[in-house]
Amino acid sequence: MMYPLHHRAARNRPVLTPLLLTLVLLFTVGMAFAAAIGDQVELHATHQAGVPLHREPRSTNDFQRIPDGTRAHVIDVAKGGQWLKLSLPDGRTGWVTSRDVSSPTTSAPSPGTSPAAPRPQRTEDGTVTHVADGDTITVITANHTKLRISMVGIDAPETPKGATFPGQPYGKEAEAYLTQLVEGKRVTVEMYGVDRYKRLLATIFLDGKDINLAMIEAGLAEVYRGPESGNPYKQQYQAAEETARSTKKHMWVQGDTYESPRAYRKRVGIS
Known about the structure:
With 271 residues, this protein is an alpha+beta fold. Helices cover 25% and strands 29% of the residues. The protein contains 5 helices and 15 strands. A 5-stranded antiparallel β-sheet has the order 6-5-4-1-7, with no helix packed on it. Strands 8-9-10-13-12 form a 5-stranded mixed β-barrel.
């Protein structure tokens, strides 16, 4: 039996609609960028005012707008990669959807990392409860886990250790400066492994600011000179050390009499 044309179209519509919906959903999901912690991403706005930056990984009316084209680093991932927590160049942090970002073009790589740079094994937020010296801190997480941390990629002057080891010039200054920066404050900890003293090797971020880098910039730590420690920001740290050294900030004022922490430990017999 022959049906009028409009009847045949009506019969086909329920079959075509789910198929089209599936294709649309697959296309939409494919547009989301699969980013991981440590990646650099570029924001792409669908609104002329910019990309919404949320305080939590969910859509709310409480957000700020970030300009299109802004580059940032991923410091956390939530909801199966649908939400990314970013550290922005101006120090702010916040959450965006993965559909709002893409991988940056290869013509302008991150200043501190390379495509082969290691990614953090884990990221935790917590409060700094103790500063032991210029590169060692203790952080307590929300679930009351104590993290003893050696700040990866940097080496601060040694502090006194009893009468036998009087410490190095600027060791106490480095400890005091780090205390001023982070003690009692909430930080993000990027973990890259464990050292032989069972301390976590980590980069510390405070409101998006790299505190390991801040110690080098202040002239109160050098780039770690021992075996490769997995520092993903080594190039950035080396550039900061060169600047601090050339401007003779803090410990670099010593000039030719400067002794690196690693050389000091070897000389006095600290393992």
